[in-house]
UniProtKB/TrEMBL annotation:
Signal peptide: none annotated. This is Class I SAM-dependent methyltransferase. GO terms for molecular function: methyltransferase activity. It comes from the Bacteria. One of its GO terms (biological process) is methylation. Pfam families: Methyltransf_25. InterPro entries: Methyltransf_25, SAM-dependent_MTases_sf.
Length: 203
């Protein structure tokens, strides 16, 4: 992602850290805790995370790890984000889990790792980019990294109003693009007014 676009994302969250002191949900840009949890629930339902290495691109405070761990025992969790404060706080909260959890400060569009089973991006691909191919190159990037599955959600352009920082996508268009890379693609919607999830499974 272009440095200026990343900087805009950084400033957005930095301002929210000040405005929404201690409210992790709001700081990460969610409208409510329900909005975040319903997305986590769809992700958890899309794969078996037991014994898997999960890479969470744009992990925020790494709360997806806690959510998945309620049901499954992950072999490894790598959370990637550019916001230093999020990672510091995640490491503190999960200080007794750092044998499994690793947090990396990086641009998610550049980050790659070997031996990854499942790549997840929850709420992190909606930020506007000056690169018109940002989303398609991110999907290809995630698909190359994952050994088993890629799961990501996006705002739905049919219902999400135009905004400065984030943007919606045409769900059929995204689905068709994913089909050019992967035979098994699932589009999940109906869990929120303005969001959909794509699951790409490798055979
Ligand atoms: C809406 S928050 C979602 C956080 C978390 N995935 C969740 O579901 O609660 C999106 C996160 O993506 C991160 N992010 C967006 N673009 C990024 C980039 N290019 N590199 C690293 N992190 C990025 C932001 O810093 C933010 O923490």
């Amino acid at each position: 992602m272009h440095l200026f676009d990343r900087f805009k994302v950084y400033l957005y969250h930095r301002n929210r850290i000040k405005t929404w002191s201690g409210n992790l949900t709001k700081i990460q840009g969610w409208s409510s805790e329900h909005a975040q949890q319903v997305r986590f629930d769809v992700i958890r339902g899309a794969a078996d995370f037991n014994g898997k290495h999960v890479v969470d691109l744009g992990c925020g405070y790494g709360e997806l790890f806690d959510f998945l761990s309620e049901r499954d025992q992950l072999a490894k969790y790598t959370g990637v984000d550019q916001q230093r404060q999020f990672l510091k706080s995640a490491k503190q909260r999960l200080s007794d889990k750092l044998d499994i959890c690793r947090f990396v400060r990086a641009d998610l569009s550049k980050f790659t790792h070997d031996n990854v089973d499942i790549v997840v991006a929850c709420g992190s691909l909606n930020y506007k980019s000056r690169d018109s191919e940002y989303l398609t190159s991110m999907v290809a990037h995630m698909y190359n990294m994952a050994g088993e599955a890629v799961i990501f959600n996006l705002l739905d352009s049919a219902t999400f109003p135009k905004q400065n920082l984030v943007t919606g996508y045409n769900k059929q268009g995204v689905y068709l693009y994913c089909k050019t890379l992967c035979e098994s693609v699932e589009l999940i919607d109906g869990y929120a007014d303005d969001d959909f999830t794509i699951v790409m499974r490798k055979s």
